[in-house]
Fold this protein.
Amino acid sequence: SEKEDAKIYRAFDNVDEKKIITVTVGLPLAIIASAEAVPLMVMASKSSAAGTLTSSLGRTFAVNSGKLAAINGGKEFSGQYFSSALVHNDWTLNRIDWIDVGSNAIFSKGGEIVLGSAMDFSFQDGFQYHADNKLVENLFLGYSTAKLDSKVGSGFDKIVGQYSPTLSSFLSNSVQLNINVMVNSAKHLTEK
């Protein structure tokens, strides 16, 4: 009746159209751009004139396989979610940087660091492009964290990997998730 209709209309009044438009337009555009960029990079890497630069670029933006994409994207999502919950007591998805999560899932570590350092998108802050000190800070933090993750992974491979590769992978990913939570928490604390 009229009360129910009024309740329904009020529910639609607090819907943020900008967020809906950003996600429904931005996410497909990012996916299409990624899908279009990969063949161009492959084609460029086969050109003899492109040489070393494009082969390095191709390795940097190498596309992850299904299992690796799920693990990397899951670790990044979990790290950001838990750090947001710990620092801000925010258990929503508003503070998660979706470009970081997507680039972690799609690209190799180098490509993820470059793309994730240059751009951010969260429901709370919207789209941001960094071409200043924030970019340098993000690149430094990204490469430092990647180096630490690599050391942790190779450490577990040497110690546990010879006995149980599955346990080694589990422990390595668990420690890397904890590192991710700590790094993201530190980032959240500095942004307060």
User: Anything to note?
Assistant: DSSP finds eight helices and two strands in the chain. The first strand starts at residue 119 and ends at 122. The mean pLDDT is 80. Strands lie at 119-122, 126-129.
